[in-house]
Amino acid sequence: MGPKEDMLPPGWEDLDRQMGQLFMMGFDGTTVSPQIPAEDATRLVLELQTIARDAGHPVPLLIALDQENGGVNSLYDEIYIRQFPSAMGIAATGSKALAHDVALATAQELKAVGVNWILGPVLDVLTNVRNQPLGVRTTGDDPQEVSQYGVEFMKGFKEAGLVTCGKHFPSYGNLEFLGAQTDVPIITESLEQLSLTALVPFRNAIIHGLDSMMVGGVSLSSAGVNVMHACLSEQVVDDLLRKDLKFHGVVVSECLEMEALTHNIGVGGGTVMAKNAGCDIILLCRSFPVQQEAINGLKLGVENGIIGRARIEQSLRRVLSLKAKCTSWEQALNPPGVPSLTQMQPSHTSLSTRAYNSSISVLRDKNNILPLSNILEPNEELLLLTPLVKPLPASAVSHSVTEHLSMSLDVTAMDRTASVLSGESVFKELGRSLSRQRNGRVLHTSYTSNGVRPIHENLIDRASAVIVVTADANRNLYQHGFTKHVSMICRSQFTPSGEHREKPMVVVAASSPYDFATDLSIRTYVCTYDFTETALEALVKVLYGEMTPMGSLPGSISRSQKLHQARQHWLVESWNEERDSHALDSLLDSIRGECARGERSELLGVTSNSFLLRREEIDEAHFVVRNSSTQALYGFCSTYYFQSTGTGVIGALIVDPTRRKLGIGNSLHNRAIRTLLQRKGVKRFQLGSRLPGIYLGIPSANPVERKKLRQWFANLTWNTALSRPVCSVILRNLSTWTPPDGLIQGLQNADVAYDLVYGWDYANSILDHIKTNSRQGVIDIYKVALAGAPNCGIIRATRPGDGAILGSVVVYNQRANLAEHMPTLKATRTPAGGISSPVISPSVGEYATVMQGLVLLAIKQIRKQGAEAIIVDCVDGDSNYDCLSGIGFTTLHSFEEVNCDATSWTMMT
Known about the structure:
Blueprint lengths: L14 H6 L2 E2 L16 H14 L7 E4 L1 E3 L2 E2 L13 H7 L2 H17 L4 E2 L24 H17 L5 E5 L16 E2 L3 H6 L2 H9 L4 E4 L3 E4 L2 E3 L6 H11 L5 E4 L5 H6 L2 H11 L4 E2 L4 H16 L5 H18 L2 H4 L4 H23 L1 E5 L16 E6 L11 H5 L7 E4 L8 H14 L5 E6 L6 H9 L2 E6 L6 H14 L14 E5 L14 E4 L5 H11 L12 H11 L6 E2 L2 H17 L24 E9 L6 E10 L4 E9 L8 H14 L6 E4 L10 E2 L3 H13 L8 E8 L11 H7 L3 E5 L5 H9 L6 H9 L5 E7 L6 E9 L10 H4 L4 E9 L6 H18 L4 E8 L4 H5 L4 E12 L8
């Protein structure tokens, strides 16, 4: 007698009952038939479980479902079931936490209708991204990334109470298709190659507690391996999966109704092979005669001794263990149903919107044509060209799995339509959505394998911008050819006067992002990963600038493009004032000219001289990338080392708008960091400088540009997540300005005295106050102010009893030396004064009162000199802004100041 844990529970002695647990079978229809039970969400699942209980089943049914999201939703209900991005769409968000939350929400909805087993996650690695059927159903082509997201999906599924099923072992990520349906797709990689790439996510999922595994119906053909069907191979299931990868859960076969298997082996023989290979559950789709053939084949195999009774019982124990994890009669007969779905709907709707909004990826926008609202006038027409496509399938490898998933007597899977709308319908809705979001007219027509027709040419000629949508163009080559043809037409446009002018064109990959991922001739390329309604709604927001695109292409292609750009090393030279001043002024003019309509450039009033401090206590070194033949500057970077605080600063990094994304910025940045690391005593680095006050950090007024710049600097090791807001603010119409009601009275009641002082006689006490409270550059600004009388002074707030300084600000006019380094003052084009670097002692209880008192006295002083405006630079957005806005100041420029420890770059030395 075997050990006690190997004994079957009471009631499982009958062989037919044992074998009934080992099939997953489907059928047509949505009601219970005399042959096999079926589905219609909660009601039908409950009916199935009730039938099973009344028939004397010791344990409930397993109800299994494919619910991969994106275009693969076997269960969809417009009211109660939410749409979420595909696996690759989730990976494009870059958020593992979001992956977990979406998996949890997906599983909670399935649990509500009575499903207890989800056929996921997909763990295939796209080791060949072209012509693969999986597409966005998998995370991407990086084994580690697929592993990480796979584990997060698993955790979410399990947290909701479902058991999991990894698929499709050993991989569907690099298949060779020979053409005929009777031919089995082939894996040509060796087991060693698979172990290094494709098997990594499966191995990792097993370590983290994967409950079951689906083994594919593909063949393997390489050195040492010659397998006709993986799920029928003992070498794949028992040896590779069970022994090598140490998987002890339930193994499910691929559907044995696939044409290649029925043609080559037959379902009866295939069932016997699958059981002997080590599969616990045999998957069959919907043909009742085929299912009978499979059951009879298994019985005959046992009767003839080909299949040992011990193997049947071993599989049964695994299936019963799986059921114990996820169901009981109490759960099976009391599904939460629609009330639970209704309760979840608001939070899941919000999660769906957030996930899709975070996934849209702009891979390229070389000509800066996004958002379209910046380049299209209301009277101009926008053309949308979309392919005629079929609904997204629920599965992709075999024709049988594409059309339907499975249901069984005792292991049941449900299926409905795979997508909400057909491709044609959803693209029509995209056209309507584009129309609703803009005043101008949107033209929309489809295209087919017939290519560019005269109607397309006429519409392209008529429109002012063109959007071409593709959906798996690498598998539907006509889409690839059509898009390239339209691109050629758009790039060959001329104005009525004969001047060449490229017509703006956006290509949107609405499924696989690999359609044009590496084709740099497609200059503006956006990926949505799905062509569901929710995905395309998010796309419209991105195209019109209502939302900043936050997604990025998962996997190696995106990284290799970044590395390729970083490897383009430009010759960086030290700044030469005599040689480069005029060229820098020209570069500044070109950047100001690129500023979007309605935006105020941070470089207004800036000249080449604005960057030069010429102070002994500040080490400055500036760098250029230039054309030595024409003397033109392609890029400029200013750096400063403030000895007083041990801070190395990148004060500006600017690149010719026509030469961006060529590695110029990377080359300048690397040279700047290397130089700053050589400064003795450097402790930290800062992005943005208060002296000179040109860029206080990363410009943040334009959300799209802000995101791009934050990501660019993050890729260069800056910790942008710890940035702090800082801004310049302005008070206009100074001659007619009056203080808010009650302000002066409140200041008079406070026990604080204010005075204005000039010169070095006051330096010791002021600088002691500054040293205990200041940030980079602030003490240097005060030193400039102390030397700048009579055009520059310092206003103090003191305690009347002992004269202790409670707060201070610098006040100056346009004739002050300090104004040379604060170009926003000159850019006002009106008589103006400046307030700089407020410093309030931490011991002050009434922070806002002291701050407003200092500024009020500064306003009084500046107004005496006939100024019409006041600018306050270096305003900390988290403390000082509210004090100033209450007086009447408004934001002029906003930035994000970034600080990093110097050790972040010590590896470069």
